[in-house]
Write a structure and sequence with these properties.
Elements lengths: L23 H11 L6 H11 L3 H10 L2 H5 L12 H7 L1 H4 L3 H12 L5 H7 L11 H5 L4 E3 L2 E3 L3 H9 L51 H9 L5
Antiparallel strand pairs: 1-2
Helix pairs in contact: 1-2, 1-3, 2-3, 7-10
Length: 227
Protein backbone atom coordinates (compact mmCIF):
# COMPACT_ATOMS: atom_id res chain seq x y z
CA UNK A 1 0.00 0.00 0.00
CA UNK A 2 1.51 3.29 -1.06
CA UNK A 3 1.66 5.96 1.61
CA UNK A 4 2.00 9.69 1.65
CA UNK A 5 5.25 11.42 2.71
CA UNK A 6 3.76 11.80 6.21
CA UNK A 7 3.43 8.01 6.49
CA UNK A 8 -0.37 7.86 6.34
CA UNK A 9 -2.18 5.86 3.67
CA UNK A 10 -4.04 7.87 1.06
CA UNK A 11 -7.34 6.19 2.05
CA UNK A 12 -7.16 4.45 5.45
CA UNK A 13 -7.94 0.76 5.19
CA UNK A 14 -8.01 0.74 1.38
CA UNK A 15 -5.15 -0.75 -0.61
CA UNK A 16 -4.04 1.45 -3.48
CA UNK A 17 -2.93 -0.28 -6.67
CA UNK A 18 -0.45 1.76 -8.72
CA UNK A 19 -0.95 0.82 -12.36
CA UNK A 20 1.96 0.95 -14.79
CA UNK A 21 1.65 3.04 -17.98
CA UNK A 22 -0.33 1.45 -20.78
CA UNK A 23 1.46 0.19 -23.84
CA UNK A 24 1.38 2.16 -27.09
CA UNK A 25 -0.85 -0.56 -28.55
CA UNK A 26 -3.38 0.00 -25.77
CA UNK A 27 -3.35 3.77 -26.37
CA UNK A 28 -3.91 3.12 -30.09
CA UNK A 29 -6.91 0.97 -29.18
CA UNK A 30 -8.37 3.77 -27.03
CA UNK A 31 -7.99 6.19 -29.92
CA UNK A 32 -9.69 3.79 -32.30
CA UNK A 33 -12.56 3.20 -29.88
CA UNK A 34 -13.16 6.74 -28.59
CA UNK A 35 -12.17 9.16 -31.37
CA UNK A 36 -15.20 10.82 -33.03
CA UNK A 37 -13.45 10.57 -36.42
CA UNK A 38 -10.57 8.49 -37.73
CA UNK A 39 -7.43 10.44 -36.74
CA UNK A 40 -4.77 11.05 -39.36
CA UNK A 41 -1.73 8.84 -38.93
CA UNK A 42 0.52 11.79 -38.00
CA UNK A 43 -2.03 13.06 -35.46
CA UNK A 44 -2.42 9.58 -34.00
CA UNK A 45 1.36 9.32 -33.54
CA UNK A 46 1.48 12.68 -31.73
CA UNK A 47 -1.38 11.74 -29.40
CA UNK A 48 0.13 8.37 -28.53
CA UNK A 49 3.54 9.92 -27.87
CA UNK A 50 2.18 12.76 -25.73
CA UNK A 51 0.03 10.44 -23.58
CA UNK A 52 3.08 8.57 -22.19
CA UNK A 53 0.83 5.60 -21.49
CA UNK A 54 -1.77 7.56 -19.51
CA UNK A 55 -5.34 6.99 -20.81
CA UNK A 56 -6.64 10.13 -19.09
CA UNK A 57 -4.27 12.25 -21.19
CA UNK A 58 -5.32 10.80 -24.54
CA UNK A 59 -9.03 11.04 -23.65
CA UNK A 60 -8.57 14.67 -22.64
CA UNK A 61 -6.88 15.43 -25.96
CA UNK A 62 -9.73 13.76 -27.85
CA UNK A 63 -12.24 15.98 -26.05
CA UNK A 64 -10.26 19.19 -26.58
CA UNK A 65 -9.40 18.77 -30.28
CA UNK A 66 -11.72 19.55 -33.14
CA UNK A 67 -12.55 17.06 -35.84
CA UNK A 68 -10.52 19.06 -38.33
CA UNK A 69 -7.51 18.83 -36.02
CA UNK A 70 -7.99 15.09 -35.60
CA UNK A 71 -8.15 14.64 -39.36
CA UNK A 72 -4.95 16.65 -39.75
CA UNK A 73 -6.72 19.46 -41.62
CA UNK A 74 -5.95 22.02 -38.88
CA UNK A 75 -2.77 22.41 -36.78
CA UNK A 76 -2.57 20.91 -33.32
CA UNK A 77 -1.92 23.16 -30.32
CA UNK A 78 1.69 23.26 -29.23
CA UNK A 79 2.04 22.09 -26.57
CA UNK A 80 -0.93 19.78 -26.04
CA UNK A 81 -2.21 20.82 -22.63
CA UNK A 82 -2.49 18.21 -19.93
CA UNK A 83 -5.91 17.89 -18.27
CA UNK A 84 -6.24 20.32 -15.39
CA UNK A 85 -7.04 17.66 -12.78
CA UNK A 86 -4.05 15.52 -13.72
CA UNK A 87 -1.71 18.52 -13.88
CA UNK A 88 -2.83 19.64 -10.42
CA UNK A 89 -2.26 16.15 -8.99
CA UNK A 90 1.19 15.90 -10.54
CA UNK A 91 2.25 19.29 -9.21
CA UNK A 92 1.12 18.80 -5.60
CA UNK A 93 4.52 17.65 -4.36
CA UNK A 94 6.31 20.10 -6.67
CA UNK A 95 4.50 23.11 -5.23
CA UNK A 96 5.41 22.00 -1.69
CA UNK A 97 9.14 22.24 -2.42
CA UNK A 98 11.22 25.32 -1.55
CA UNK A 99 11.36 28.00 -4.23
CA UNK A 100 15.05 27.39 -5.17
CA UNK A 101 14.34 23.70 -5.77
CA UNK A 102 11.29 24.51 -7.89
CA UNK A 103 13.44 26.91 -9.88
CA UNK A 104 16.00 24.21 -10.65
CA UNK A 105 13.25 21.75 -11.59
CA UNK A 106 11.69 24.30 -13.91
CA UNK A 107 15.01 24.82 -15.69
CA UNK A 108 15.41 21.05 -16.00
CA UNK A 109 11.88 20.68 -17.39
CA UNK A 110 12.47 23.33 -20.04
CA UNK A 111 16.00 22.30 -21.00
CA UNK A 112 16.73 20.03 -23.93
CA UNK A 113 19.69 18.50 -22.11
CA UNK A 114 19.18 19.05 -18.36
CA UNK A 115 22.72 18.35 -17.17
CA UNK A 116 23.69 19.39 -13.68
CA UNK A 117 26.26 21.93 -14.88
CA UNK A 118 23.71 23.69 -17.06
CA UNK A 119 21.17 23.89 -14.25
CA UNK A 120 23.52 25.57 -11.79
CA UNK A 121 24.77 27.98 -14.47
CA UNK A 122 21.31 28.85 -15.80
CA UNK A 123 19.88 29.32 -12.30
CA UNK A 124 21.77 32.60 -12.00
CA UNK A 125 22.86 31.80 -8.46
CA UNK A 126 26.33 30.50 -7.61
CA UNK A 127 25.02 29.17 -4.30
CA UNK A 128 22.65 26.68 -5.99
CA UNK A 129 24.07 23.26 -6.81
CA UNK A 130 22.65 19.98 -7.97
CA UNK A 131 22.71 18.94 -4.32
CA UNK A 132 19.78 21.29 -3.76
CA UNK A 133 17.64 18.82 -5.72
CA UNK A 134 17.85 16.33 -2.85
CA UNK A 135 14.33 17.12 -1.55
CA UNK A 136 12.93 16.42 -5.01
CA UNK A 137 14.95 13.19 -5.26
CA UNK A 138 13.62 12.04 -1.89
CA UNK A 139 10.07 12.45 -3.20
CA UNK A 140 10.90 10.54 -6.37
CA UNK A 141 10.24 13.51 -8.63
CA UNK A 142 13.68 13.38 -10.27
CA UNK A 143 16.94 11.51 -10.08
CA UNK A 144 20.45 12.58 -11.01
CA UNK A 145 21.92 9.97 -13.32
CA UNK A 146 25.46 10.52 -14.57
CA UNK A 147 25.26 14.28 -14.12
CA UNK A 148 21.89 14.52 -15.89
CA UNK A 149 18.58 15.29 -14.21
CA UNK A 150 16.02 12.64 -15.20
CA UNK A 151 12.26 12.81 -14.68
CA UNK A 152 10.99 9.26 -14.04
CA UNK A 153 7.51 10.45 -14.99
CA UNK A 154 7.67 12.43 -18.26
CA UNK A 155 4.19 13.80 -17.57
CA UNK A 156 5.56 15.60 -14.51
CA UNK A 157 8.11 17.31 -16.73
CA UNK A 158 5.32 18.44 -19.05
CA UNK A 159 3.23 19.61 -16.10
CA UNK A 160 6.07 21.71 -14.66
CA UNK A 161 6.75 23.29 -18.07
CA UNK A 162 3.07 24.09 -18.60
CA UNK A 163 2.80 25.52 -15.09
CA UNK A 164 5.53 28.09 -15.81
CA UNK A 165 4.31 31.71 -15.60
CA UNK A 166 5.70 32.37 -19.06
CA UNK A 167 3.94 29.41 -20.58
CA UNK A 168 3.99 30.94 -24.03
CA UNK A 169 7.80 30.86 -23.96
CA UNK A 170 8.12 27.40 -22.45
CA UNK A 171 8.48 25.50 -25.73
CA UNK A 172 11.13 27.85 -27.14
CA UNK A 173 13.15 27.55 -23.92
CA UNK A 174 13.61 23.82 -24.63
CA UNK A 175 16.35 24.75 -27.07
CA UNK A 176 18.72 25.57 -24.22
CA UNK A 177 22.45 25.42 -24.94
CA UNK A 178 24.26 22.16 -24.27
CA UNK A 179 26.44 21.57 -21.24
CA UNK A 180 29.62 22.74 -22.95
CA UNK A 181 28.18 25.85 -24.56
CA UNK A 182 27.80 28.91 -22.32
CA UNK A 183 24.48 30.65 -22.49
CA UNK A 184 25.74 33.99 -23.78
CA UNK A 185 23.22 36.45 -25.20
CA UNK A 186 23.87 37.51 -28.75
CA UNK A 187 23.79 41.16 -29.69
CA UNK A 188 21.63 41.84 -32.68
CA UNK A 189 23.53 43.59 -35.46
CA UNK A 190 21.86 46.04 -37.80
CA UNK A 191 20.38 44.39 -40.79
CA UNK A 192 22.58 44.58 -43.87
CA UNK A 193 20.67 44.80 -47.11
CA UNK A 194 21.49 41.91 -49.42
CA UNK A 195 23.53 42.74 -52.51
CA UNK A 196 21.57 43.57 -55.61
CA UNK A 197 21.30 40.60 -57.92
CA UNK A 198 23.43 40.74 -61.05
CA UNK A 199 21.49 41.53 -64.19
CA UNK A 200 20.67 38.45 -66.18
CA UNK A 201 23.03 37.70 -69.04
CA UNK A 202 21.18 38.02 -72.32
CA UNK A 203 21.27 34.92 -74.43
CA UNK A 204 23.78 34.90 -77.27
CA UNK A 205 21.92 35.86 -80.39
CA UNK A 206 21.63 33.28 -83.06
CA UNK A 207 21.04 35.31 -86.18
CA UNK A 208 19.62 33.68 -89.17
CA UNK A 209 21.92 33.43 -92.12
CA UNK A 210 21.14 36.10 -94.75
CA UNK A 211 19.80 34.62 -97.89
CA UNK A 212 21.85 36.70 -100.38
CA UNK A 213 24.77 38.19 -98.48
CA UNK A 214 26.77 34.96 -98.50
CA UNK A 215 29.39 34.14 -95.86
CA UNK A 216 30.55 37.75 -95.44
CA UNK A 217 27.07 38.96 -94.59
CA UNK A 218 26.47 36.08 -92.19
CA UNK A 219 29.86 36.80 -90.50
CA UNK A 220 28.98 40.46 -90.06
CA UNK A 221 25.62 39.54 -88.53
CA UNK A 222 27.40 37.33 -85.98
CA UNK A 223 30.13 39.95 -85.45
CA UNK A 224 32.88 37.45 -86.14
CA UNK A 225 36.40 38.84 -86.72
CA UNK A 226 37.68 38.75 -90.24
CA UNK A 227 40.21 35.93 -90.68
Amino acid sequence: MRQTPEGDPLVPGVTELVLPPLTERAIHDILTDRAPVVPASAVRAVLVRSAHGNPAVVLSHLHSLSQDQLRGEAPLPDPLRLPERLRSALLTAYHALPAPVRHLLLIAALATDPCATLLTRASGSHSLTVGDLEPAEELGLVRVDGGTVVFPDPLLREAIAQDAPVGACARSTRTSPGPSTPSTPRLSSPATPPPAPAPPTPPWPTPSRPRRAGFAGWRAACRLPRP
